[in-house]
């Protein structure tokens, strides 16, 4: 019985040590945890057949812990872009080339003329098209 407890402690120590320094590249640790889980359940079955209930319980808990850690997926967090400063109305007018008295039709016409040249499908850049979109939205929607 003591052998199984020591074996379980070694497996737990090995898995916890692996958290600090990855033993396997990529998803390899999941395979190791799955193998450790299967080994713990096999040892628990053997200990149960021999009526060693404390060791059986400890190995079942170890097997469940290894199985749940093997099924965990890493959390992938998106890197948030730094918030862009709000485009002022004056900047939006200068980007589109309209004056302060321009109405929605003039703004839309200037946008259409410029986006034809700046669209990525026509050889422009996505950044320039995004600036034109932001300027149009700022002037038409007042964001």
UniProtKB/TrEMBL annotation:
Gene3D superfamilies with a match to the protein in the record: DnaJ domain
Superkingdom, taxonomy of origin: Bacteria
Keywords, sorted A to Z: Membrane, Transmembrane, Transmembrane helix
Name of the protein described by the UniProt record: Molecular chaperone DnaJ
InterPro entries on file: DnaJ_domain, J_dom_sf
Positions of transmembrane segments: 28-49
Domain J: 91-143
Keyword Membrane tagged: yes
């Amino acid at each position: 019985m003591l052998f199984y407890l020591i074996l379980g402690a070694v497996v737990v120590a090995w898995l916890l040590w692996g958290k600090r320094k990855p033993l396997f590249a990529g998803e390899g640790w999941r395979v190791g945890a799955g193998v450790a889980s299967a080994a713990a359940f096999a040892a628990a079955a053997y200990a149960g057949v021999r009526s060693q209930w404390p060791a059986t319980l400890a190995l079942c808990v170890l097997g469940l812990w290894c199985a749940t850690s093997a099924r965990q997926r890493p959390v992938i967090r998106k890197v948030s872009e730094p918030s862009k400063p709000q485009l002022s109305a004056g900047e939006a007018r200068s980007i589109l080339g309209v004056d302060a008295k321009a109405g929605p039709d003039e703004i839309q016409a200037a946008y259409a003329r410029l986006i034809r040249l700046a669209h990525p499908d026509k050889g422009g850049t996505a950044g320039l098209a995004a600036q034109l979109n932001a300027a149009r939205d700022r002037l038409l929607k007042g964001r």
